[in-house]
Structure prediction request, 842 residues.
Amino acid sequence: MRRSQLFIKTRKEAPADEESKNAQLLIRAGYIHKEMAGVYSYTLLGKTVIDNLSQIIRQEMNAVGGNEVLMSTLQNKDLWETTGRWDDKAVDNWFKSKLVSGAEVGIGLSHEEPITNMLRSYISSYKDLPVYTYQIQDKFRNELRAKSGLLRGREFLMKDLYSFSRTQSEHDKFYEKVAAAYLMIFERVGFADDITYRTFASGGIFSRFSDEFQVLSHVGEDTIYVDEAKKMAINKEVYTDENIEHLGLNKGQLSEKRAVEVGNIFALGSKYSDALGLKFTDESGQQQSIIMGCYGIGVSRLMGLLAEHFADEHGLVWPANIAPYKVYLASLGEAAEVSKAADGLYEALSQAGVSVIYDDRDERPGEKFADADLFGLPYRVVVSQKSLEQGGFELKSRTSTSTEVVPQEKLLSILSDSRQD
Amino acid sequence: MRRSQLFIKTRKEAPADEESKNAQLLIRAGYIHKEMAGVYSYTLLGKTVIDNLSQIIRQEMNAVGGNEVLMSTLQNKDLWETTGRWDDKAVDNWFKSKLVSGAEVGIGLSHEEPITNMLRSYISSYKDLPVYTYQIQDKFRNELRAKSGLLRGREFLMKDLYSFSRTQSEHDKFYEKVAAAYLMIFERVGFADDITYRTFASGGIFSRFSDEFQVLSHVGEDTIYVDEAKKMAINKEVYTDENIEHLGLNKGQLSEKRAVEVGNIFALGSKYSDALGLKFTDESGQQQSIIMGCYGIGVSRLMGLLAEHFADEHGLVWPANIAPYKVYLASLGEAAEVSKAADGLYEALSQAGVSVIYDDRDERPGEKFADADLFGLPYRVVVSQKSLEQGGFELKSRTSTSTEVVPQEKLLSILSDSRQD
Prediction:
């Protein structure tokens, strides 16, 4: 993509109305646009990051047997009344609206009820189970305060998977499979496995604990206690002597860390399936309850965390698998020879399947270098009179301070080799 | 995908609460689930149809220089008040909601205002223009009646492109480019070019006509008058002697047809850009207005029309480019030999990149044949003792009544050759 065709402009200053560092950076770099507090739109750059994250998550959810669906945003009040979650006293962050007829509708904040209800059309026998179904879909939550950018939005993109199992042991087995898939996802998006902790957190009514996936980060909103040797962690909210003992942990081995939640898993028991009348007939003809679990990853939240966690003083630094493009190619000066070489390299990289932003604008070198850093793509390649005299193009990785001049063939080989998976 | 992993079940009878033929069929075949009137969720089958449509539309929009974005659903009231479109008297099908603070927000029914406003951050000079930007995104419209299934939903998926041009002639040129791309899209999704008409329709305040793209169909909601020789059409709403003459048409050559609108293009002039203060500075330093156009295709509507238009008495009949899978593979009977051959064929087809639903269920042949027809995939392949005795597998295209038994190698070659583009 030529930079001149990408309609965004970068900014030197953070927008005055934005407190959160992730949103400041992403707005400055032209990835997102603020519509109102907690509500953002995505330019091509931002949308491509979201798509890259979604694709990794989709692959791992399919690998554990997940079946992708797409539920509606408009919600039938009746379903939520059945489970007692319509009333604002039970759930305090609904957006609600009304049909022309006056009937109330909800704007989807989660999908346990509609997914469970939908499955009533498809599930009746033990032969129909288990079912694992997920979606990557917008959620709407009427947060009183929305000051954390993409980390806690009023409108955000979420992957939510729901499992429907015949027995507790079938449920438990799948629960562990998803937990392993989550660790794989967080590693693939760029969090080294030594900073991601499956963390014991408060469990609600169906289990002593739920599982949170926490990334150790200076961005940290949460406090967790980690046992590095055992690779176990416990959230501050359940950090009691009783729980520590129950988990076989030792206070002396636990150190306090700041972390950010990137995913969670809850055991739901048969709360929703029973309430909505989703049951199954077992081999002996008896009606049985269905055991549910739900498994969430905030996709836009993950984008915000990746942006803020890896950024340096010059701008964004995307992990290779997530970057919207691999290379920021900049031509310097207006010499015909330079333009021609840069055009040729852009063609060659594109044909080799390397994704490139080609900064072909008539701008000063300082502007182009600043934008390359701010964009946060893995590689910067500069074409200038000087580089051509030295026999090639100047290559620099985003996180390195040194550059080297390499001829075209070698450049193509380097950039194709380290291809994103 | 094994049918046993696809959690849907088909139905013999249409649901009692659904009047529309497209929704009846899609619900019976397990592609969609009704949440409420005009609101549907999509199973894996339905979502894959939506994805296939979106991908074709995306390719053609990128080919004309479109830059994909993703705008928010929650809408800032101020923007819509600025253009006079917030008041229910001006726009009568808003869904609105409220923040906890009490401030009103809109649920996006279109995106002229937020897109125009977003571009204020990026456009100031003639050098920044033209900009062509589009999204494939949910829209919400509070329709009084919603009885047409996917043809007119309260929540639906739409591709909306917006153009921002410096001059009327720059606008006109792009407008024609999109019109050509639209015809290409409708042909690629399965409507032969002799039944798709670019149709003159009422233009609003910026041009005498707008352009509708109408497909001649028994599903038809609209009445249009076509001149087959000139390949021109005019909507009943502007079918006046004056307009007929203005267009150089002759009443004697026009025949009345039923048709369904699948896309539209509107000239917007500078109504929104002027109202929201999006201007540009020209080469001589003067502030100038920006000429806008908007270009819509209802993606879920298109799915509904394709379903209803091509269906026969046995069920859905998807065009090859749109079908969620290419082959419905069914094994008949429980002989080990049959299962083994079917498993092997499933493997071989999958490895050859042919998308397959493998009906490996323990069901009667009649059930499997009925499901194969209802699903509407381009090909049915049957593995049975009989077919194996005859040296292969029974192949039938969805629209043909004849079958032939072909050996595996030939089958692979046939199904790989006619690969979807």
User: Anything to note?
Assistant: Chain B touches chain A through 55 residues (CB under 8 Å). DSSP finds twelve helices and 21 strands in chain B. Chain B has two domains: 7-215+259-310, 327-417.
